[in-house]
Here is the input.
Amino acid sequence: MGIAVVALLVALGWLALFSPWLKVTPSAVARRVAAIPLVRETKITRRWPQTVRVEVVERVPVAAVPAGGGGAGYRLVDRDGVDVESVSSRPDALPYLDVDVAKAGAAALAAALDVQAGLPTEVNAQVRTLGATSPDGVWFVLRNGARVVWGGADQGELKLDVLRALVTSNADAAVYDVSAPSTPSVSRATVRDAAVLPR
Here is the structure.
């Protein structure tokens, strides 16, 4: 019995110290896989005696943004602002957002995405360009050229109601600022066509 226990301990020691089954540890695998730019998340599990299971969540592009740095084309980025792909022409399947992710950060991109997703379809149809300079600096330009200063992604319904009221009473304005919806403002410089926002 004593010899069997000693043999088992020797075998376990050899497994722990010298066996190729333990050479690749889950943490090392996780670090290597996480270093791949197109991987968003990894989950590593070990199945004894010699299997390591690697589950990967890929980064998926959610928007096209300007190439930046004076370059032509577009960068397809995920919600974290990480480049997934570079393309020369603007894709129809993804929204275009005028966000310099390198300067404004991923939080600005996320705010622009949230504002765009929160606008009703009929209002989105009136938006020519939407972008952000910061998480609280979301803006968009209507088809008639009027600029809307939206601010952060919060209070979306209230801001939309205020914007509609401003457009109704100031159809020739060039800028509608609803970033603070309780104290909105309007710049009355004339634009070519009257702004129209559907109800």
The chain has six helices and ten strands. Strands lie at 39-47, 51-58, 63-66, 74-77, 83-87, 127-132, 138-142, 147-151, 175-177, 185-187. The mean pLDDT is 83.
